[in-house]
Amino acid sequence: MARDHELTGRSLFAAHALLPNGWARNVLVQWDGDGCIMGVAADSVAPAGVPVAKGPLLPGVPNLHSHAFQRAFAGLTEYRAESQDSFWSWRNLMYRFAARITPESLEAIATWLYVEMLEAGYTAVCEFHYVHHDQGGTPYADDATLSLALLRAARNAGMGITLLPVLYQTSGFGGRPPRQDQARFIRSTDNMLSLLERLAPATQAQKAALGLAPHSLRAVPPDSLAAAVRGLTALNPQAPIHIHIAEQTQEVEDCIAWSGQRPVQWLLQHAPVDARWCLVHATHMTPAEYAGAARSGAVAGICPTTEANLGDGIFDMPLWLQHGGRWGVGSDSHACVNAAEELLMLEYSQRLQRRQRNVLASTAQAEVAAAMTLQAVQGGAQAAGRAIAGLAVGQQADMVVLDAHHVALRDLPPHSMLSAHVFGSHRTSAIDSLWVAGVCRVSQGRHALHETAAQAFVAARSATIAPD
Question: Exposure winner among 1, 146, 151, 345, fewest CB in 10 A?
């Protein structure tokens, strides 16, 4: 039995908390020494000495899709590079930036990014990591060098992480050879499985999850995809699998030209897609693909601000939900790093598409911000392959407290504060504090590493930007 002072240090009382089944009053949350929630009691009385939240208590939101190095690239492509700019012209510029990343700069960029994420309400990240080799494409002496840099960044910032090394082999459908500017990404299937074996002890020591990211159908031929999934399953049958799919209309057209099928249609018929899978973007699907993908149990990984930045298109969320689909949000290229703003962009895109309001409210949750938060937490936890599914016994104590005295929230009814946070507080953050695995990582809106990590990021970015 834990001593009273230990429980006091592993407890938090909130007058209002968003639990998996909705809002509750006077909630006492307690967790053990590993940061696992062992008690959630509503209608409680605050025990003596237990900290009291300064505002509503929320579950932490998992960020289910991240390319960490691209944070240093944000804002540097907002000019017309071609007569009609697109995802593909943006990608060419991004490749030039990726060619200059070093292990040291990647760690500095990722550390600052994870600090930003924590300050913005994310408590976990799924890192879709595809820059593997040195600047000429030659493997480092330790083939896991860049993966380990990301794990260190997450550990130092206190961010929960699911590491997803990316399998990348071809530059297009039909086995087209890789481009020269993709040399840092390329691995054989056997080499990828060896990397996963190398990383398993490091992720286990850090209580991180380890999965696999076949980059896309255009970058991983069918035989390699099947072999990689089999090999991953042999290593860990529960390991998550993430894949970019149907993000761009050109990708859909190229897939049809190659196979006679659309990307999601092909994947569902040729791969064992189930609840382990996260279909990142999945922007361009037919109604039959929406139904089939939702039935598979896979999570849709929606990245609203990146999809808007790149001109991808709009995911049909009501149709997905109609079929019982699960979803989560990611910040992807990190043009924006803010969990609330991803939810806002997601809801606003649906409003623009349908010319309606409060599209993603549910029968159980009429308040759209609460409905989206709970769904994003559930889907994000599934995609991460970790027990981070909200304020419930057996889940990790990943929690966010809003500042009830923030001008956007002050004197509002408690159930309205989350709505004000998502839809009205972005000039200054309304987050007061944040915990990951029961450890307070953000206090009074600021991470302890904020200044030092920011300075290191700026230096790394300056050193990485290619001269004109």
Answer: 1
Helix then strand then coil, in percent of the chain rounded to 5, is 40, 20, 40
CA distances from 389 to 69, 127, 143, 364 (A): 27, 18, 33, 18
Q: Which residues of 304-336 are buried (b: 16+ CB within 10 A; e: fewer)?
A: bbbbbbbebbbbbbeebbeeebbbbbbbbbbbb
Q: Average pLDDT of the chain? A: 94
pLDDT at 3 over 70: no
Give the span between the Cα atoms of 351 and 344, in whole angstroms. Answer: 11
244 is catalytic: no
C-alpha angle with apex 169: 83 to 109, nearest 5 degrees?
70
User: Are 294 and 268 within 8 A, CB to CB?
Assistant: no
CATH number of 4-59+390-445: 2.30.40.10
pLDDT in tens, 173-183: 999 999 999 99
By residue count, the chain amounts to 468
For 375, residues 6+ apart whose C-beta sits below 8 A from its C-beta are 326, 327, 328, 360, 362
In whole angstroms, what is the distance from residue 107 CA to residue 155 CA? 11
Among residues 312, 316, 332, 403, the one annotated as catalytic is 332
Structure-token pair, residue 231: 């090999």
Residue type, 323: H
User: Given 67, 281, 406, 447, which residue is catalytic?
Assistant: 281
In the chain, where are the structural domains located? 4-59+390-445, 61-384
* CA–CA separation, 427 and 95 (whole Å): 32
Using the predicted structure, report yes or no on whether residue 460 has a pLDDT greater than 90.
yes
Summarize pLDDT for 368-387 with one digit per residue, the tens.
999 999 999 999 999 999 99
Q: Using one digit for the tens of pLDDT, what is the confidence trace for 265-309?
A: 999 999 999 999 999 999 999 999 999 999 999 999 999 999 999
Yes or no: say if 302 and 252 are a contact pair by the CB < 8 Å rule: no
Question: 387-446, pLDDT tens digit by residue?
Answer: 999 999 999 999 999 999 999 999 999 889 999 999 987 778 999 999 999 999 999 999
- Give the pair of three-digit tokens for residue 379: 């889907």
CA distance 22 to 374: 8
Amino acid at 372: M
Does the pTM surpass 0.85? The reply is yes
Homologous superfamily (CATH) of 61-384 is Metal-dependent hydrolases (3.20.20.140)
**254 a catalytic residue:** no
Tell me the C-alpha to C-alpha distance, in Å, between residue 457 and each of 40, 112, 212, 315, 454.
38, 6, 27, 33, 5
